[in-house]
Amino acid sequence: MSDVAIRVEGLGKRYRLGGPRERYSTLRDQIRSWSSPRGRLRRTDRDERRPPFWALKDVSFQIEPGEVVGVIGRNGAGKSTLLKILSRITEPTEGAADIHGRVGSLLEVGTGFHPELTGRENVYLNGAILGMRRSEIARKFDEIVAFAGVEQFIDTPVKHYSSGMYMRLAFAVAAHLEPEILVVDEVLAVGDAQFQKRCLGKMGEVARSGRTVLFVSHNMHAIRSLCTRGILLKSGQVSFQGTAHESVSRYLESMRSGTSSPTVSQRITRPGTGEWRFTEVMAAKPLFDPDEPKEILFRISPTGPDAGPIYLSGLLVNEEGTVLTQLDSRLTGPFPTRVEPVAGRLRIAGLWLKPGRYSIDLFACTLSNIVDHFEQSADFEVSPLLPYPQTASPNATASAMVLADFDWRIDS
Question: What is the 8-class DSSP label of residue 267?
Fold first, then answer.
């Protein structure tokens, strides 16, 4: 067996952005265009006008057999592009990536599922697509179904599944591969909190089995607990390599020292059906005391006459990517019902936060769809100046996620 599981040298991936949109052409149109000197010149000129974008540039590292390595970085740093190249989904523009061993990829969970087939049939179909033999699928079938928690619906066409059931079954199939090298992209975003905990346990089992794992996640707790080493990507390049704890610390430090949350103008393309869009989001101030209410100011507008009633929801996330609480307007009201811009504020009063940096993910939803999802829409910091004696800092809050209004008393 090779002493290196993955070797990447000078890896780069370039894409071309922009350029005019053209109608689809027939093969005859293409041949006619390329056979004409003028057509060839126009095609060359047009391509040269398009600015190149390097999703990855001069990336080099190597991973030993049995290592569990976390790949971290901001959105757009090149993490998913790197995994797609290592999984042979896309070809690099330059450089080389050598992989020694059978590779299993957990990238686009659910790829290969057919909505008209039952859950049972899709397990066999998806397993075959992922490279599992029929005997291997049959041997693991009961374990896969139990892991997904869909025993009651396994013979029902998956088009009748909820999105959570669909994704749980798809992940369960992929998670039961037994490759020598496992490449994983943010699987902890699948399902509810209980299933995410099960996914984390499965990842830990894979890591302890001695297999090589390359793991991309925004959950810094998962990176620290699962990985032995970390690779920090920034703007398509390797910014740092070291232990998992060192890499996470560098990443969090870069988040603190970098720019604040992306503005609405920087994040025009966001998930959601689009009938409403957040147009302004900001924290009421950049620094709060631990025990004072935190306020997020927002403005949201309908984008057309078809916009209907919505509710608003938010996730409060700490700097390690852990969701601390959900803030859902269905519990408090009101619902924006007027088809006109709405300005408001989200006030978080009953939660004391320990010193650190926090962000808010905002959602606008109908009862059946997400209309707008603005991830990390605003961020703020909580002051380390606690109203406690000097002897209480900093170890008094070292193990906590949140603080509380509490009191110790000695009864004489």
Answer: -
The pTM of the full predicted model, rounded to 2 decimals, is: 0.60
Q: pLDDT digits over 91-122, tens only?
A: 999 999 998 887 777 776 666 688 899 999 99
- DSSP conformation class of 127: H
Residues with Cβ within 8 Å of 196's Cβ and at least 6 positions away in sequence, in order, are 188, 189, 190
Contact 382, 356 (CB under 8 A): yes
Token pair recorded at residue 81: 């592009």
Do residues 190 and 168 make contact, with C-beta atoms less than 8 angstroms apart?
yes
Q: Can you read off the two tokens belonging to residue 262?
A: 């992306």
Name, in order, each residue with C-beta under 8 angstroms of 229's C-beta and a sequence gap of 6 or more.
63, 67, 68, 69, 70, 241, 242, 243, 244, 247
Average pLDDT over residues 375-384: 84
DSSP 71-121: EE-STTSSHHHHHHHHTTSS--SEEEEEE-S-EEEESSTTTT--TTSBHHH
3-state secondary structure 132-173: CCHHHHHHHHHHHHHHHCCHHHCCCEHHHCCHHHHHHHHHHH
Secondary structure class of 200 (helix, strand, coil): helix
**More confident site: 140 or 355:** 140
Q: Are 312 and 326 in contact (CB under 8 A)?
A: no
Instruction: Please count the other Cβ atoms lying within 10 Å of the Cβ belonging to residue 347.
Output: 13
Residues of the chain with pLDDT > 90: what percent?
A: 16
The DSSP secondary structure of 206-240, one letter per residue, reads HHHTT-EEEEE-S-HHHHHHH-SEEEEEETTEEEE
Please check whether residue 339 is in contact with residue 363, taking contact to mean a CB–CB distance below 8 angstroms: no
Q: How many CB atoms neighbour CB 252 within 10 A?
A: 18
Compare 269 and 195 and report the one with higher pLDDT: 195
Cα–Cα nearest to 274, from 369, 342, 155: 369
168-177, 258-267, 346-355: segment of lowest average pLDDT: 258-267
The pLDDT of residue 121 = 92
Domains observed in the chain: 6-22+39-256 (3.40.50.300), 264-397 (2.70.50.60)
Give the tokens for residue 343: 């300005």
Tally the residues of the chain: 412
